[in-house]
Design a protein that fits this description.
The complex is a heterodimer of chains A (181) and B (163). By secondary structure, chain A is mostly helical. Chain A is 77% helix and 0% strand. Chain B is mainly alpha-helical and 163 residues long. In chain B, α2 packs across α7. Classes of the chains: A mainly alpha (181), B mainly alpha (163).
Chain lengths: 181, 163
């Protein structure tokens, strides 16, 4: 595990803050600690499984398959796949980032990846059902119809802009992960 | 949380099938999973730290107070800013939105709030920059913020709340 100095400092300071809060019964600190543990519990139920699926994706899915359906020449279908994939995302956008990285390594184009990332915020099936039942179907339909074309458009613009600047996605372990065919 | 059961069962089945077909590849997959997870863990922890603090300050009462502002333009703006900063899981954000609706908060304000809540991430910044770098992160989030405002306007018009 690699950890930057800044993150190490932030996390240590936070741990000390929580420890002291519980020691002297500082209420806000205790509440923040409880918030942390309940969120951590939710994450534990999602994130390890998501990463196992990412691992399986890395070893089983061929690069050509991703390139064909989500790559440079995938056209409009690539965006539709991205939206479909995003609707099955579990958890939140924090799961969508590692997934995007895998897609990127396998040859998905940037605009498709950005479409996936942003639409994961709108289209996740359980959330959409939840939203429609609480705020009304009309509300959800408007949100879908207005946002998806804008997401695709902005993703295309973002890709153009970033590629001109030599953008590359990265990962802390990019150099040590074995390349899998 | 039904979606979690689906995730667990799907992951379990995939692992079993993968293991039956090719043992070595499956072990390699688990190695990749572990390595990726460990390496992204520090930014993940920083995000969780931010979430724990934000949840403390952004209570239901405070959110209700600001979203119920009488000036609708101000309410939309403040809703999108609160939504961008807070990170509420969907199963909290939507019930909260439902509650706010019953208190008379406008649809377009709720649209701004829920959309920025899901699409714009101030607290997910540590993770997003780890993968995307600073520039792409700021650009994507700014565009998402803009899209959320457009959605809010569209909702406002279609629900007769605008002009």
């Amino acid at each position: 595990m690699k950890i930057s100095k800044r993150n190490a400092f932030i996390l240590t300071a936070y741990a000390v803050f929580l420890a002291v809060s519980f020691l002297i019964e500082f209420k806000p600190g205790q509440q923040i600690g409880l918030n942390f543990s309940s969120f951590a519990l939710t994450m534990l139920r999602i994130v390890p499984f998501a990463f196992i699926l990412i691992g399986l994706f890395e070893v089983w899915v061929k690069r050509e398959t991703v390139e064909k359906h989500l790559g440079e020449d995938s056209g409009i279908k690539g965006y539709l796949w991205a939206i479909l994939l995003s609707s099955t995302t579990v958890g939140g956008i924090y799961v969508a980032f590692p997934v995007s990285y895998s897609l990127y390594r396998k040859g998905a184009r940037l605009s498709v990846i950005f479409t996936y990332l942003s639409s994961a915020a709108i289209t996740r099936i359980p959330m959409a059902i939840f939203e429609a039942s609480l705020l009304g179907v009309k509300f959800t339909i408007i949100r879908f119809l207005v946002s998806l074309p804008l997401i695709i458009l902005s993703s295309i613009l973002l890709e153009k802009y970033l590629l001109r600047r030599g953008f590359k996605m990265s990962h802390p372990d990019a150099k040590v992960t074995p390349t899998v065919k | 949380m039904n979606e979690m059961y689906v995730l667990w069962i799907f992951t379990g089945l995939s692992l079993v099938i993968s293991f039956a077909v090719h043992r070595g590849k499956t072990i390699q997959a688990l190695r990749i999973a572990l390595k990726r997870l460990l390496n992204i863990l520090p930014p993940f922890l920083v995000m969780m730290l931010l979430v724990s603090a934000v949840l403390y300050f952004a209570t239901d009462e405070i959110i209700a107070h600001y979203l119920g502002n009488e000036n609708k333009y101000f309410a939309v703006l403040i809703a999108s800013i609160i939504g961008a900063i807070t990170f509420l899981p969907g199963f909290i954000a939507f019930p909260l939105a439902g509650l706010l609706l019953s208190k008379g908060v406008m649809y377009m304000v709720l649209a701004a709030f829920t959309t920025t809540c899901m699409m714009v991430g101030v607290v997910t910044y540590p993770i997003e920059t780890a993968y995307m770098g600073t520039r792409a992160t700021i650009m994507r989030n700014s565009l998402a913020f803009l899209i959320a405002l457009i959605i809010s306007v569209a909702v406002g018009i279609l629900y007769g709340e605008l002009p």
